[in-house]
# Entry
Amino acid sequence: MSDNEEMITDINVSIVHKYNFTAGASTTRFLFQLKKGVLTGQRCPSCSNVYCPPKGACASCGVATEDEVALSNKATIESFTIVAIPIPNNPIKPPFIVANLIPDGANISLTHLLSECVNEEVYKGQRVQAVWKPEQEWGHDMGNIRYYKPLDEPDVPLDMIGKLPVEGLGG
Amino acid sequence: MRDIAIVAYSQTDCVRSAGAANEVELIMPQLSAVFDQAGLSNSQDVDFVCSGSCDYLQGAAFAFVAGVDALGAVPPIKESHVEMDAAWALCESILKIRMGHADSALVYGFGLSSPGELPIVLSQQLDPYYLAPQWIDTISLAAMQARMMLDQGLITERDMAEVVARSRANALNNPHAQLAADVSVDNLLEQELFVSPLRKHDCSPISDGAGAMVIATVDQAKEWGKPYVLISGIDHCIETHNLGMRDLTDSVSTRKAAKMAGMANGKVDVAELYAPFSHQEIILTRALGLGDETSINPSGGVLAGNLMMTSGLSRIGEVFNRIISGEAQRGIAHATSGPCLQHNLVTVLEGV
Amino acid sequence: MAILAAVVGIGQTKYQTKRGDVSIAGLVREAAVNALNDSGLVWDDIDAVIIGKAPDMFEGVIMPEAYLTDALGCNGKPMIRVHTAGSVGGSTALVAASHVQSGSYKRVLTVTFEKQSESNAMWALSSKRPFSVNLNAGAGGYFAPIIREYIRRSGAPYDTGIIVAVKDRLQGALNPLAHLQLPNITKKEVEESMMLWDPIRFLESCPSSDGACAMVIAAEDMVAESPKPPAWIRGVAMRSEPTMYAGREEVSPQAGRDCAADVYKQAGISNPRKDLDCAEVYVPFSWYEPMWLENLGFAEEGEGWKLTTEGATALDGGDIPWNCSGGVLSSNPIGASGMIRFAEAARQVRGDAGNHQVEGARLALGHAYGGGAQFFSMWVVGADKP
# Structure
């Protein structure tokens, strides 16, 4: 090799793999309900906890979750962070909130965006509400819910977070 | 060294596509089945859990993490994973038991090969700088190996077709088989070439599925009061990745693994060989020096159904089944990984 | 019943953003050769090779053990590849140790690596699925809410994480292998760095590194063949729990506590802060130091931050130095990071940690975790045979 040539330190090779990805039977049911505008979870027959999004099994009991449960559009914030890194193909502008929130009727959190809020005023136990895209834009997609926004309802006591029935605080 | 035995085995049927089934839905019924067989309830009842799977099959990183949801791992369990066929997860589990950190283990494997184009996906198992960029698929590599065998007069096309015919016929007795039929060798030879000199039937099919096994020390198996089959030896051996640098018409590593596992210490009534291509069954049979006294692939082998990441474990499971049923007294199971039989594992099983 | 085993050789590569001078094979071989040289052994002395790395999707090489066998002198030998998400570096060490501790093999070589410059980790970790929203939040986005919860519960001062970020980089500057060499880093600099996922700032996060780490582990009766002092393996443990379940304690995961209790019991440790001389703990985001101090029993619940702010975990003046090598905050080739913790713990008790040596260290903890803080692997190594 002559002195003028530089070492080759990498090669760029494009590999394309096409996959027909399957969601799984229980997730498929979840997605079909989302297309109808309904958020659902699945209940464990052993411990009665409701999972959303459902995966077909209760992870702590190791049993299949069959019972489908309709959940509320209302939720409680369990934890969150303020993110500075933009999301490709999403109009939301940093800094924005990514939150783990538990829909009423469920017992574990799902992760979603929070918007129409003041980032510094978000807190654990805060009540929030799902904001859906217009119905004509609905697909089999968790993205049907554009984000959650604060809801004017009494805060949830910390030891009640993740334990609310689908009727919410009053229920 | 502690005596270790297989107490339970279960697998799904080999199907072209598992449809809308995610990892958890695929695995859980098999786990329930082996727990039932062993008289256990869930993963809390074994001391160690190890699984085998490959993210690239289904195209999602951390496929095995999703699998943990099927275990009921609360309270936390001792659990590990190899990105290899579950036969190697069995190896890891055996080491745990031998060192006294477990008396029993659950081993399982799963794989969805249908989402992607398996032979192309596996082209990325090759050297990333020189081979993978050429997208050399596994079938083409196996075809070159078969071509070498034919050109050197080591096999004939008829020999290959005979392997397939026997596989299809044997598979008729295997409820899990994907491909089973009564076909004549002449009929097979009339089929058109697929990737010369291989015909479609010389290649194992694309299959989805999962399998699970429970192993334990012999003392533990006796305590559970369940019938068991002894794992009297297990070892494995890998060869060079450079295809031009090894004799592709032989399987030196299989022979070595079999020797280290103690195959020669007794008769071999049955041998389940993981041969994804018909000519490879011949290579393996010859490499192991197996004769007429050994029943080769009575299940139909993986030509009848190839559960990627479980096929190695299911060879062991098939031999286990035959010894438990009394059909055989002693047998070997072989697992392979990598292009053209690069990495080989041999397990020796004995009835008590 | 377990055979006593020891680390008799350690080899690492210099960690940096891009090793443009070696292929993946070259990278792992470099670490392996360093380990063999350190152990005074040659390739033929090795009975089996155990490798580990993070998801194949990072570099895009499926089941790389097939490709790497030649580089690692493994032709004609057994080879296993372990993959347990982020804890893989640690799990690989444990699986390697079990090869010897089970009496099945006498001497093994274990290597873990990541060539992150040839991979796209962010992409690999965020495959688009319809059943969850694509938030591109990554690891930081996942751990930040958990850290906030720790801060809320413990009332820890806001600069606890900053103190860790400075300490680990100053210690890393004593380690010529560390990726980030920031001997002049200040608290002010860290505090003013960009806030990425509140409360994690840029300088409180780990880098992305190329690198490999290797060890040779031998059975008791072969240890004397290696010239340098061994690091006897005094305890090994791993635990897993699911990512998500109702009521899961995320700040101090049960799996971490159970794993620590197991390894301490084996090693005869009842008070980790007193009984151990130092620890190499997987801290990829600064706040995980106070959190793991509690999870690993070095501090009572809610008090981990006090050890950090008091300087107890600093090499310079602390009574229980953590991450003298610079830790994950200074070098992070993901697949290797766990093993680097295990190896650096071993270096300490061999008296071989160069400028970041803890004087007279005789018992050390190596720790790794992965996934949603759900997979844990740990070992305790000592200068003395049990």
In short: The domain at 5-119+208-225 of chain C is CATH 3.40.47.10 (Peroxisomal Thiolase; Chain A, domain 1).
